[in-house]
């Protein structure tokens, strides 16, 4: 049995066949999969090439990211261990390597960079790694003997490897020669790359005969090595669909009905695919090969230029946005590598219109972003923080605008009694969450964007509306999770409103009964200040928005206002005692804070 791999033009990888070690990458333990299955883990990755070995597989993206899966008993996956993988894993050790080609042997792997460097990993028992040893390598290692020789091709056999150096017009081989696959009679194994004794590097070279029309191509079978002198034709199939300038020029030209159907098909192919979008708008001059958690590899000025072009052709713009809207619910919530995050940077700038369709798509995008795992959301925040100020500001304005739209609709529906004034819909909270996260990113990066770009004026109307219908404490509790949308005057009003809402035990109990979260705050009388500092230091920011519920350890009773008041009273009295050292006492009799930062270990 064998394994089969097929990449569609839309970027999806399908596999089927033998799966003894998870080499199909579909997360299944079945040893045989008869029907093509989608490799979901690589959804959104703009694939450039797939390679299959004895029982392991590898893939390379357009920006040089490498993924591997399957058998790994010799470290052939390059993941620093020997554990098999039934789903693709990102080879972090090859980040920034600028990989352009990969080849898999029976149990080893070779990777070629754009600069012509070769690194190998996996089984080395026959010298097939070229490191002058028979040791296995669990992580990618550069073939030092080829340093300085700009390699253009690499091919792996079962236990041997070939490389071609066009500047020298030579093919180098290393590894097992038990079947004569290295083309010479030296020894059973060759531990370092040596040139083959063939017409390729003699006076009979086909490149010397006709450089412009004939080229060398190397191929490795199980125990065979083949050097082809062939016509200069592209032997590779076309890659996945990505956006090209000539396509865009065709889209915005005058066209008939028949041409329009072809254009729609092309638009659907690219903008219905996360992988195709991630493979478009890439930075020029190889900068996209530097893609990492800090650098997206996307040229947003190209995205803006594309949007400006198609905006002049509303029919095309609507078609692009229609396909984006269909794509949004299926965006990957578990990115495998930094390349997956490009789509989250590109799409907002294709949805800049002030129309219901653009607003709806931005809401869907916000919901997709909020489904990301915390570590992945942190990566996106890092990419946002590294955006040029103009693009970051535009992103803020987009979500400020859609939040204004949402809250305006909220007001209209409440006034007409079509809406419960206590609730916000998920799409409304998602856009507010994005705006708040952008505000936090802005704060961490030196406040490049002024705070008034985050204000949502509609909150003033909501405050007044809540007063009229006497539900101020309920509606405002929802919105105060997003303080960036309030200006200073509104924040003061909200503060007084919340204070009044919590001023009586009945109000607190009522709020808790309505589902508001509480902050359970157990303290020991004998270690009161120590327990308070521990709670305050360990609490996340959102904890301070919750209702404080105090309990004294070892004492009966619930906090209906009394324990909280006692906590603050006892804490203040204890804190002011000279023995705590919390304050310094002036000769005038005043008590003041220390000028030096305190360690916080009082009491």
Describe it.
This protein is an alpha+beta fold. Among the domains are: 3-231, Regulator of chromosome condensation 1/beta-lactamase-inhibitor protein II (Methylamine Dehydrogenase, Chain H, 7 Propeller); 243-347, no CATH class; 511-593, Hect, E3 ligase catalytic domain fold (Alpha-Beta Complex). 34% of the residues lie in helices and 20% in strands. It contains 17 helices and 21 strands. The protein has helices at residues 206-209, 245-251, 257-271, 274-278, 300-311, 314-327, 342-346, 356-370, 374-385, 389-415, 426-444, 458-469, 472-479, 488-501, 505-513, 528-538, 562-575, and strands at residues 3-7, 13-18, 32-38, 47-52, 56-61, 66-70, 85-90, 99-104, 108-113, 118-122, 137-142, 153-156, 160-165, 170-176, 189-195, 214-220, 225-231, 518-523, 547-552, 583-585, 591-593. Strands 4-5-6-7 form a four-stranded antiparallel β-sheet, with no helix packed on it. It has a four-stranded antiparallel β-sheet with strand order 8-9-10-11, with no helix packed on it. Helix 6 (314-327) runs parallel beside helix 8 and helix 13 crosses helix 14 (488-501). The termini are far apart. Mean pLDDT is 87; it is low at 207-212.
């Amino acid at each position: 049995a064998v394994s089969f791999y097929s990449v569609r033009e839309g970027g999806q990888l399908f596999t089927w066949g033998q799966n003894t070690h998870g080499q199909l990458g579909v997360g299944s333990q079945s040893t045989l999969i008869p029907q093509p299955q989608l490799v979901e883990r690589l959804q959104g990755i703009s694939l450039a090439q797939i390679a299959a070995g004895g029982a392991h597989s590898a893939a390379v993206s357009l920006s040089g990211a490498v993924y591997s899966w399957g058998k790994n008993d010799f470290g052939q996956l390059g993941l620093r261990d020997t554990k098999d993988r039934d789903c693709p894993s990102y080879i972090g050790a090859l980040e920034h390597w600028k990989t352009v080609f990969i080849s898999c042997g029976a149990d080893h792997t070779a990777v070629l960079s754009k600069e012509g460097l070769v690194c190998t990993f996996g089984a080395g028992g026959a010298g097939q790694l070229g490191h002058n040893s028979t040791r296995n390598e669990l992580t990618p290692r550069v073939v030092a003997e080829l340093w300085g020789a700009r390699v253009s091709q690499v091919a792996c056999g079962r236990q041997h490897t070939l490389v071609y150096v066009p500047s020298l017009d030579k093919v180098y081989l290393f590894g097992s020669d038990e079947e004569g696959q290295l083309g010479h009679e030296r020894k059973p194994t060759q531990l370092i790359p040596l040139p083959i004794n063939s017409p390729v590097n003699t006076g009979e070279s086909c490149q010397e005969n006709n450089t412009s029309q004939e080229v060398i191509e190397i191929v490795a079978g199980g125990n065979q090595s083949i050097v082809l002198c062939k016509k200069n034709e592209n032997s590779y199939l076309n890659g996945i669909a990505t956006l090209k300038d000539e396509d865009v020029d065709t889209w915005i030209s005058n066209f008939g009905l028949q041409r329009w159907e072809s254009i729609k098909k092309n638009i659907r192919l690219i903008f219905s695919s996360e992988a195709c979008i991630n493979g478009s708008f890439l930075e020029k001059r190889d900068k996209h090969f530097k893609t990492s958690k800090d650098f997206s590899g996307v040229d947003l000025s190209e995205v803006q230029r594309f949007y400006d072009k198609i905006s002049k052709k509303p029919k095309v713009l609507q078609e692009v946005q229609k396909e984006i809207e269909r794509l949004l619910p299926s965006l990957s919530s578990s990115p495998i590598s930094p390349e997956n995050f490009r789509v989250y940077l590109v799409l907002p700038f294709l949805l800049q219109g002030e129309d219901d369709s653009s607003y709806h798509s931005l809401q869907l995008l916000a919901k997709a972003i909020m489904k990301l795992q915390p570590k992945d959301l942190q990566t996106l925040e890092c990419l946002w923080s590294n955006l040029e100020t103009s693009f970051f500001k535009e992103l803020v304005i987009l979500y400020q605008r859609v939040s204004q739209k949402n809250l305006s609709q909220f007001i209209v529906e409440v006034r007409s009694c079509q809406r419960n004034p206590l609730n916000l819909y998920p799409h409304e909270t998602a856009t507010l969450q994005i705006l708040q996260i952008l505000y936090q990113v802005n704060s961490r990066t030196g406040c490049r964007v002024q705070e008034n770009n985050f204000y949502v004026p509609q909150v003033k109307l909501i405050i007044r509306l809540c007063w009229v219908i006497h539900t101020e404490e309920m509606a405002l509790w929802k919105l105060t999770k997003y303080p960036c949308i309030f200006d200073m005057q509104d924040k003061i009003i909200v503060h007084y409103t919340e204070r009044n809402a919590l001023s009586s035990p009945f109000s607190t109990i009522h709020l808790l009964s309505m589902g508001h979260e509480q902050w359970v705050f157990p303290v020991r009388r004998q270690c009161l200040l120590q327990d308070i500092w521990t709670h305050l230091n360990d609490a996340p920011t959102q904890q301070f928005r919750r209702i404080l519920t105090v309990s004294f350890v070892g004492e009966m009773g619930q906090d209906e206002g009394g324990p909280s008041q006692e906590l603050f009273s006892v804490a203040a009295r204890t804190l002011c005692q000279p023995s705590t050292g919390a304050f310094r006492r002036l000769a005038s009799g005043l008590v003041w804070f220390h000028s030096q930062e305190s360690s916080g270990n009082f009491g």
